[in-house]
Write a structure and sequence with these properties.
Blueprint (H helix, E strand, L loop, with lengths): L2 H18 L19 H13 L1 H25 L8 H21 L11 H17 L2 E19 L10 E16 L5 E20 L2 E9 L3 H5 L18
Antiparallel strand pairs: 1-2, 2-3, 3-4
């Protein structure tokens, strides 16, 4: 292997190690935010990394900006057919679902949000994570301070006249506290007892006239979603507008 290739491989391995050294376990979706870069040493390491990775960071923000801009434009056009797709209504619904899910997660009872999540995903969260941690004498402390922003990254719109079955991937930034602790000793097993800004991708599906949480993925996949071409069938609206 050539020296320059070895150096490139070393940089990739170091970056990968830094981003994945702190395992993820809890929170909605089953993950605790990685805490390395929240420490003093982490921030010290992050500064030169930002300089090295600036072109990639700039590219990511640019792609996401145009994807979000296009998605909002298409949603407002679709909203003339179904008001639940108008951006202001949609943003309000997403924030409501986000808040309720965090409350249910903190109370360890996903049945509280049965009206806001699809059945399979709700059962997955309860059985795979919450019930498992109870058996292990662990509690997930998952508290939401505030929602910073909600941005539509990717649309999959159906041909149904009421747009039933359509899905939207949202990039959500929020200030949260998320950690696992022992129920008896209260010792923190994973994460930190501090609030911090985190990004997640929430996928919502429009089913029977309401929005339901269908999946949660890490915010690190935002560029992947932003690069996807929105699936929006051409719909001739009453005003003569064509959604493309």
């Amino acid at each position: 292997m050539k020296p320059k290739h070895k150096n490139l491989l070393l940089i990739i391995l170091i970056i990968g190690f830094l981003f994945y050294i702190d395992p993820v376990y809890a929170g909605p979706g089953g993950t605790i935010a990685k805490g390395l870069f929240k420490t003093w040493w982490g921030k010290l390491i992050l500064a030169p990394l930002c300089i090295v990775l600036f072109p990639l960071i700039a590219y990511t923000y640019t792609v996401e900006y145009f994807a979000i801009r296009k998605s909002k434009k298409q949603l407002n056009a679709l909203g003339t057919q179904n008001k639940e797709f108008m951006w202001l209504n949609l943003e309000k619904n997403v924030k409501n679902i986000f808040t309720r899910v965090y409350l249910a997660w903190e109370r360890e009872d996903m049945a509280e949000v049965s009206e806001y999540m699809n059945h399979w995903y709700r059962q997955n969260q309860q059985t795979v994570y919450l019930d498992k941690w109870k058996r292990e004498n662990l509690k997930n402390v998952c508290q939401l301070d505030k929602i910073n922003s909600v941005k539509p990254l990717y649309l999959e719109i159906t041909n149904d006249k009421n747009l039933e079955g359509s899905k939207i991937a949202f990039l959500i930034s929020a200030n949260i506290k998320d950690y696992l602790k022992d129920r008896t000793t209260h010792q923190i097993i994973q994460g930190k007892n501090v609030y911090g800004d985190e990004e997640k991708i929430w996928v919502l599906e429009y089913t029977e006239g309401k929005w339901l949480l269908d999946d949660i993925q890490e915010g690190t996949y935002s560029l992947t979603f932003a690069k996807l071409k929105n699936v929006v069938p051409e719909i001739r609206l009453h005003q003569g507008i064509t959604v493309k």
